[in-house]
Amino acid sequence: MAARKKKKASRKGQGTRKGKAAAKRKAAPKRKASRKGTPKRLTAQEMAHTQREISVAEFFAKNRHLLGYDNPSKALLTAVREAVDNALDACEEAGILPDILVALEQVKVGSTSEKASRTADRFRVVVEDNGPGIVKSQVSKIFGKLLYGSKFHRLRMSRGQQGIGISAAALYGQLTTGKPIRVTSKPRPRKPAHRFDLVIDTRTNNPRVLREREVREFNHKTGTRIEIELEGRYVGGQRGVFEYLHQTALANPHVRLRFKAPDAKEPHEFVRVVAALPEQPREIQPHPYGIDVGTLIKMLGASEARRVTAFLQQEFSRVSGRVAKQMVEEAALNGAKSPRRVSRPEAERLYEAMNAVRVMAPPTDCLAPIGEQALEEGMRKEVEAEFYTSITRAPAVYRGNPFQVEAALAYGPPLPADASARLYRFANRVPLLYQQGACAMTKAVTSLAWRNYDLNQPRRSLPAGPLALLVHIASVWVPFTSESMEAVAAYDEIHKEIRLALQECGRRLGQHIRKKQRHLEAKRKTDYITTYLPPIAEALRDLLALSEPQTKKVAKVLDSTLRRSRSS
Amino acid sequence: MAARKKKKASRKGQGTRKGKAAAKRKAAPKRKASRKGTPKRLTAQEMAHTQREISVAEFFAKNRHLLGYDNPSKALLTAVREAVDNALDACEEAGILPDILVALEQVKVGSTSEKASRTADRFRVVVEDNGPGIVKSQVSKIFGKLLYGSKFHRLRMSRGQQGIGISAAALYGQLTTGKPIRVTSKPRPRKPAHRFDLVIDTRTNNPRVLREREVREFNHKTGTRIEIELEGRYVGGQRGVFEYLHQTALANPHVRLRFKAPDAKEPHEFVRVVAALPEQPREIQPHPYGIDVGTLIKMLGASEARRVTAFLQQEFSRVSGRVAKQMVEEAALNGAKSPRRVSRPEAERLYEAMNAVRVMAPPTDCLAPIGEQALEEGMRKEVEAEFYTSITRAPAVYRGNPFQVEAALAYGPPLPADASARLYRFANRVPLLYQQGACAMTKAVTSLAWRNYDLNQPRRSLPAGPLALLVHIASVWVPFTSESMEAVAAYDEIHKEIRLALQECGRRLGQHIRKKQRHLEAKRKTDYITTYLPPIAEALRDLLALSEPQTKKVAKVLDSTLRRSRSS
User: Could you give the CA distance from residue A564 to residue A391 in angstroms, rounded to a whole number?
Assistant: First the structure.
């Protein structure tokens, strides 16, 4: 905000301003807003002078809540999450089993003001990994520039995807404490690590390196360690850092994760359960279904292919020579034409043809779901209940992006019968702890009729009853409702897939409940038999003067006959 | 997406790709991801080559749901809203009573594919105003560049604030139909209008003008007319264009608004109710409370003031000479020091001192609330009920930004007793129709105990009962939860103010309900008297052999005695 040198509406007792700031911005004509009366109404010419470009860093500094920095406790969690997500992505891409340390250190500030100390504490967030490290030339941009990264311009499943997260954490730290982010990275095992202290120039969205040096000591062969000082609040509970790390460990059993809480002497360790990395997801091309006509026109114009058919095969997923030929035929287009010569009407026809021709579902090897078994095991580990089930759906596609939905369900005591169901949400293995109400997963859950399973369900709400649900979406591009990646946008296709996954879980729950009811019914009948049979046998014995063995035999025959009739 | 020229993971039957595209991006080393096996694990050096800058236009093209373009019906509404918001802002800033026409024309596409026609229709959105117009040199940037505008770099209440809205609508149209936005603007009454057809180059986030010319015919002396062709769906109901315009007219009684629906022959007119513009809100400086230490450090470094005291007075709202002196004293700082020479520890002390010293609440003339009376009238016009109340709170401040909350409430039949309460949400006079669940207003409503007013309230939900609520937040900077401006972020201060406003309405509702209950109780007693008095009088007559006049007199005395005792 500082750099704006805004005209100010002067008020009484504030008339000391000098003309310097105004003079510097010479393009702007003097506005009359500073007089005491009504502000001056402007003409188009005057308005033109107030128009300016906005840097992305300025935008997000002012809109920090879009990135998850609405309040101190959420800010702390968000910064940790961005760093851990990046560490996990880097390790997996480099084929390294992740070993990550998260440490939170409370920083004492000589606070004279009660207000400042009341609203938030100050923390140093340290996240260290054994990943591949970052080459020297990239460090400043990765941490000191918003909208910079490797994950945006590709279709590949990863935790981060926007090129904002970690630089935004650095920006938030800088805004709330004035301190630079410190990055120590060691990309080569036999060379020293390099350390940077850097800030973001918000006016230009460019990094400014304050200090740069080599350091010898580093805890891993290669890796990265970041330190951010920021205003935050350390909380427990369902939205705290511990819970986030706990759920991260659940969805990533191949990770060794240590966490040193601000008050702890020793780090808590979430141990590695699986000693193998998950299947490395593959990068893919967009799928023909769901791409926009505007995007297609742009792709055609920028294509290097010589023929439209080649263009279709090269730039799209699942388009074989035969399919490409079908498409151009359907569009009444010459397949040998250069893509750059395709006219707008032809492009529109091609667009429609691409949607009309049957194309295989996108390849599945670009997605790495957690898997039904691991999901159910995770649920069993996390939630004590009576019945568990899980499902991994086949991949589907929204707007050309493959995605895959998984769901798990736990039901029955000791889960409390009178509380709202707990919903665990994951996107690309990252737990989502905030904005549950805005999430497609929540919407899918509330859209189902849980009353069918003896659960109480207030209108448009989560069911109440002994139920825990887990939903995971894996995609090459998860559409989050905000840059803070806290909730998944309810695209129709995604909503539908989540519903189908939950419905299948629900169907199995229904079977379980009905089976249980049959068992109960059967048990009730058995109880009747057990209760009434002895007196009947005794009465028969007395009536017919049977011997003890005879009585026993009669009782046995009666018992088996009744039990048979019960089960029919 | 087209321009990315991404490496592709080749699959069987797709081996025809040429090396050209790959050759062009020579910086990137050949990755081995195209072999059939597992994708290659990367080193830090290889990863460095995949790092790239992301343009804001690319970012929002891929994340269009952040801007409100998740689905066709919402997209249509969002585009209309951005254009109308801009038109209203421009008119008011220029001191012109707004006269706005919104027309939706369905565009026929020669659709051969069932899929395309099933998912969405194509519309031409036309929005025309009598505002000040836009000078020629600014048109292409305002409509063809994201993050460009006059409203971001100032603290002033306006509908738009980010410099994204209208260019994002153009971008969405371009992506879904391939068509440019057409802008016709007439900034000078006696000169012809200029017309632009332009598209956004997403790779660079810059406008590309396809065609530019002068036009003679224009419906107003000055003004702007935009035409966007886009994929959308026209729906009615609580989230449709009509409802948005209807609520806009309610909150802006000074606007003449005409709407031509796609199927209508004549436009529907929302007539102008008030022939005067609302008070023009003033632009202000940030308030000392709530500013970040990082921002303060930046402001100090960029200041042109000679002394810290002058800096404080010039750059902040409500800082008089006396207050500035108090601040530097509290911070043990020499007030005559140059702001640019203030050290980091000194800045931190100053930051705390700024928060510790008592500063007047921000000026109120930067905000233009709707007003208690207009709010209640709006409610009465919109909702038929029994009891109405409204309140406009005094301005408060969050993160240095003044804001003001208003609330209104309608209660009682004929509002249905068994449905969820209806909540009308407004921010800077703009109706918010989406993301109710994610909004601070909703959270404030659900956090209150409506059971106190005989309303049923499922946990964490809106109350159910004969209730309609309206909340309006006016601010120089409304913190929306996403760029699509659909829900307000729940900053503590904002949450608290909304709660207080609603509580006051609730308190009045409580009084009304208690009064009504007393009336009912009284009526019940009266009914008893009316029921039982005649037989008693008759019994007395028979018993004491009274004459008819005597009986009447006795009855009258009894009646008045009983009624008196009733009211005690």
Answer: 36
User: Are both A397 and A410 inside the same structural domain?
Assistant: yes
Look at residue A1 and tell me whether its pLDDT is greater than 50: no
- Render pLDDT for B125-159 as a digit per residue (tens, 0 to 9): 999 999 999 999 999 999 999 988 888 777 788 88
B332 and B399 belong to one structural domain: no
Of the residues A20, A59, A162, A483, the best mutation for testing chain B's interface (the one with the most B CB atoms within 10 Å of its CB) is A59
Q: How many CA atoms lie within 13 A of A203 on its CB side?
A: 9
Residue A459 lies in a domain: yes
Consecutive H or E run containing A354: helix A344-356
pLDDT digits (tens, 9 = 90+) for B200-251: 998 899 999 999 999 999 999 999 999 999 999 999 888 899 999 999 998 8
Q: Are A11 and B287 in contact (CB under 8 A)?
A: no
Per-window interface: A 519-558 vs B, CB < 8 A: none
Mark whether B485 and B350 lie in a shared domain. Answer: no
3-state helix, strand, coil in chain B (%, to 5): 40, 20, 40
Q: How many domains does chain A have?
A: 4
Question: Taking each helix axis from N to C terminus, what angle separates B136-144 and B165-177, rounded to the nearest 10 degrees?
Answer: 70
Is there a single domain that holds both residue B549 and residue B454? no
Structural domain includes residue B275:
no
Do residue B355 and residue A116 have CB atoms under 8 angstroms apart? yes
Cα B219 to Cα A552, B185, B210, B215, B229, distances in angstroms: 105, 11, 24, 12, 21
Report the amino acid identity of residue B42. Answer: L
Chain A within 8 Å of B167 (Cβ-Cβ)?
no
Least confident of A2-11, A159-168, B118-127: A2-11
Let me know if A414 is exposed, middle or buried by CB neighbors in 10 A (0-12, 13-18, 19+): exposed
Cβ neighbours of residue A285 closer than 8 Å, sequence gap 6 or more: A155, A314, A315, A316, A317, B6, B8, B9
Tell me the pLDDT band of A357, cut-offs 50, 70 and 90: very high
For residue A390, what are the domain limits?
364-512
B161: contact with A, CB 8 A cutoff: no
pTM score: 0.80
Q: For residues B452 and B485, state if they share a domain.
A: yes
Does the predicted interface ipTM exceed a cut of 0.95?
no
